[in-house]
Each structure stands twice: as structure tokens, then as C-alpha cells.
């Protein structure tokens, strides 16, 4: 089930980059980021109300963990900029390269109190195939 959810997340990311990039081309990158995040805020408020969920006690969360929100804003702005020059598939593909490198480092060292998941020879093969695919896609 987690694999299906991850695939669906990839579909949503591709849609998000395409839609956000188009809004960015019309409204500008900064204004579109505000629009996109306000709509996202409204969306999560509706979900919280519909599911009768309450915000949990947030006192034990280290301050640096909240930087995910800032990272989200930067991600929208940077993908909008990239989208206008690279299109959806290259923006996603090159972004995937950054995600792979970062996630390998996080897993290998267990950063952010996550379990250690060492980078091994089997993963090198899969990683290499993905990198080769990204490289082929970027050849003009």
C-alpha cells in the first residue's frame, strides 16, 4: 500500500509542478506562491474540519523541524522558475536527482532522528540507473 501511495504522490507532484508553474507564468513566481499556499491552507482547514481532527500538542517538536514550511515555499518558487525554462518533465527529473542525493544522505546517517538505512551496493545500481535516465532526458 505504501508503494501505491508513493506512486500517487509522484503523480500529484507532477500535477503540482505543472499547475503551479502555469500560475507562476501568469501571476509571477512570488504572487503565485502566496496564492498556492493560501489555497493549501484553506484546503487543510477544510480537511481538519471534515475529519474533526485537532492539532496535537506541538511543544516537543524542535524549532528547526518547522523549517519544512519555509522549504515548501522555496520549493514552489524554485519549481515555478525551473518550469518556465525546462518544462514539467525536466523540472521533475532534475528535482528527483536532488531528492535522491538528499534522501540517501538522510537515510545513510539517520538524520532528523530517523532510522539509519545504509546506502549499499544494491542501491548504487538502482541509483545509477535513475541518474543515467535523468542524464539522457537532459540531452538536447
From TrEMBL:
Transmembrane is among the record's keywords: yes
Pfam families the UniProt entry points to: DMT_YdcZ
GO cellular component: plasma membrane
Protein name: DMT family transporter
Residues annotated as transmembrane: 30-51, 63-83, 89-112, 124-139
Keywords associated with the record: Membrane, Transmembrane, Transmembrane helix
Amino acid at each position: 500500500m505504501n508503494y501505491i501511495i508513493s506512486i500517487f504522490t509522484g503523480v500529484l507532484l507532477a500535477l503540482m509542478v505543472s499547475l503551479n508553474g502555469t500560475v507562476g507564468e501568469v501571476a509571477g513566481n512570488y504572487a503565485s506562491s502566496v496564492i498556492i499556499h493560501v489555497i493549501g491552507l484553506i484546503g487543510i482547514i477544510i480537511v481538519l474540519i471534515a475529519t474533526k481532527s485537532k492539532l496535537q500538542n506541538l511543544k516537543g517538536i524542535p524549532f528547526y523541524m518547522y523549517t519544512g514550511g519555509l522549504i515548501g515555499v522555496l520549493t514552489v518558487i524554485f519549481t515555478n522558475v525551473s518550469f518556465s525554462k525546462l518544462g514539467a518533465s525536466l523540472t521533475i527529473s532534475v528535482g528527483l536527482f536532488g531528492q535522491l542525493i538528499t534522501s540517501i544522505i538522510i537515510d545513510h546517517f539517520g538524520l532528523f532522528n530517523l532510522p539509519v538505512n545504509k546506502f549499499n551496493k544494491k542501491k548504487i545500481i538502482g541509483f545509477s540507473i535513475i541518474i543515467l535516465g535523468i542524464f539522457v532526458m537532459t540531452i538536447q
